[in-house]
User: What shape does this take?
Amino acid sequence: MGDRSRKEALFAEFAAVGKVLGNPKRLELLDLLGQGARSVEELAAEASIGMSTCSAHLQSLREAGLIDARREGKRIYYSLTGDDVAALWEHLRRVAQAHRPHTELARRAYLGPEDTDAIDTDELLRRLDEGDAVILDVRPGPEYAGGHLPGATHIPLEELADRLSELPRDREIVAYCRGRYCVLAYDAVRLLDAHGLHARRAADGVLEWRLAGLPVET
Assistant: This one.
């Protein structure tokens, strides 16, 4: 039999990771960092929290070994320590979706009604090869710069209504964003449909593409 105190020390290490994940804002920060490296200023703005609060959450994530930091000039940029951290976040979501009934209720309340058509990744890859669809990235600029689907046109959601003339009316538009639980692509397709453009949303986003080893351009 193994030494009890050593076993408990090992499980305490596992618990340290679980403990840091037990905060919704830290999970949101992980979700944002799954799109690429971001500064604390950008993360605080996207997560709608104060700078000091954001810094404290990032420090906790760093102490747990889930994120790294690097300095560029006067700014510090944070990133995930590996794709396994992104996979952990993705698996946590899948477990919640599968085993917590209220997760689906919360998902529907956030993403809205099922009034948009989705295109799966296999079909989207085929459409990319054939070049017969416009792939539209509606995430914020720093996320697009951190990595985007090959050949994607970038129009942030908040600019989309004013830039509809840049999109063709004779081709299908496929909008994508961060991942399966991101509302940006849903809202983009609703807006495009309302203005008479033929649009669908990608079932997966950049997070799922990265984890699947699919091409992502920077």
In short: Residues 4-21 form the longest helix (18 residues). The beta strands are 38-39, 67-72, 75-80, 118-119, 133-137, 153-154, 172-176, 199-202. Residues 114 and 170 are 25 Å apart (CA to CA). The first strand starts at residue 38 and ends at 39.
